Amino acid sequence: MNLKKQQAIGIFDSGIGGLTVAKAVAEALPNEDIIYFGDTARVPYGGKSKETVSEYALEITGFLLEKGVKMILVACNTVSAYAKDRIIEKAGTLPVLDVISAGTQAVLDHPKHKNVGVIGTLATVNSEAYVRSIQQEDPGISVTQKACPLLVPLAEEGWIDNDIAKQALSVYLKHFADKEIDSLVLGCTHYPLFKQVIPSILNREETYIIDSADSIAQMAKEKLEKLDLLNSEGGEFQCFVSDRPQRFHELAQRFLGKPLKQAEIIHL
Amino acid sequence: MNLKKQQAIGIFDSGIGGLTVAKAVAEALPNEDIIYFGDTARVPYGGKSKETVSEYALEITGFLLEKGVKMILVACNTVSAYAKDRIIEKAGTLPVLDVISAGTQAVLDHPKHKNVGVIGTLATVNSEAYVRSIQQEDPGISVTQKACPLLVPLAEEGWIDNDIAKQALSVYLKHFADKEIDSLVLGCTHYPLFKQVIPSILNREETYIIDSADSIAQMAKEKLEKLDLLNSEGGEFQCFVSDRPQRFHELAQRFLGKPLKQAEIIHL
User: Fold this and answer.
1) 20 to 30 Å CA-CA from A141: which of A84, A109, A130, B243?
2) Of B42, B48, B164, the CB nearest to A168
3) Residue B88 shares a structural domain with residue B15
4) Do A153 and B156 lie within an 8 Å CB cutoff?
5) pTM passes above 0.80
6) B75 lies in a domain?
7) Is residue A2 part of a domain?
8) How many domains does chain A have?
9) Residues of chain B with pLDDT > 90: what percent?
10) pLDDT above 90 for B158
């Protein structure tokens, strides 16, 4: 495949959560065109089976390939956990990066990473993808996981720092009370919204909070530099969704803090 | 269409919530065969558009018609709000009942129903389907609604009477504090799980709680009697889902409190 600098970066997620990744990428690479796909008709993926999630992920990969992207960023932890290999296979020589690999790299890059905590959706935690991904690089790292199913709906309700959010976080993070974790991976793209309150609830100042959106943006930049595919003339951000483009558009503008082109609806 | 007593009753929902309806129907009509479809691959419907929900609902209706049911019960409030008329059209002369019509009937049947409260998902509340349905029968009834997006995930987490659930309910039900409601409709099939704690949080002993599962089961019984279609030889309960049959099966058995045949997976 003969890739060109002017081609866009493709980013996808089950819904709006992946906009945290899109935002980090737009900040790290302001002159790249970005095509974002949010599967708002079928969100959330967190409770669905591996087969179903893989099927959806391959449909979206096909869509991004048709759009002529030069790189695919998998911004959904559930997809990264279940379907990464099949996406890479389908994408051929096109580079594919995913949030779990990026989160793993951030763990390894941090000097303190002997006891790592991971929070995510039920699907991400049950898949044990972070455990495998981290221990493959360093089997000496201890990884403790906790599924936090209520955090996505809390984030979407806008309850990110009220008593209810804090109590839910207390219940979930109690799991790490006697684990002395030195890093905590936010294994779901919605969770950065709780980044301000998590440290006080963890009650361990020294715990380093890992947000894989920043990490995947950095990896994308390095990869494009290495392949000599950095664009200097782009900067457009275009969104496609499978349902409710207007609602997505409003959320996306608020999320990215700037006016955007209308999101287009696509039936896969 | 020439319907026969031996044919099953078809019930469907976006996921597992509609099992509250299936349970009420099995109790009211123990000698009927029931075919239940839960769209576990595409759950939840609450945040999806009218077009998408209608498309899914018509696919499921087609599946139940192929299965040869004698009646369809729409156990999903979002589908009832968005797609009832199109399901009736597709079902032809086959009787179709839905939870919103059933909830409305329960409101009208109760002696105190001048000030009615309705809680539901965002989609159900935004559709104003309960308001229209109730005021069409009696324009003098005042209807106040409140969307409670966190209650479904709380119910699925099993947090139905802890501090977090009570605080979330307090925030939502505060909406009715100065409304002096005499009935409260649980406009989502998950909400009956909170039936025990709602009265103390509402702090109005005289408020009557309306659970439309009981109401639709009663309506189904009367309709079948009227059409001379009551079965006296059935009692089988068969489930079909669009994803994760094993997980559904476990939940369904716990839910209905008896052993069931394996749920079968169907790709629509």
Assistant:
1) A84
2) B164
3) yes
4) no
5) yes
6) yes
7) no
8) 2
9) 78
10) no
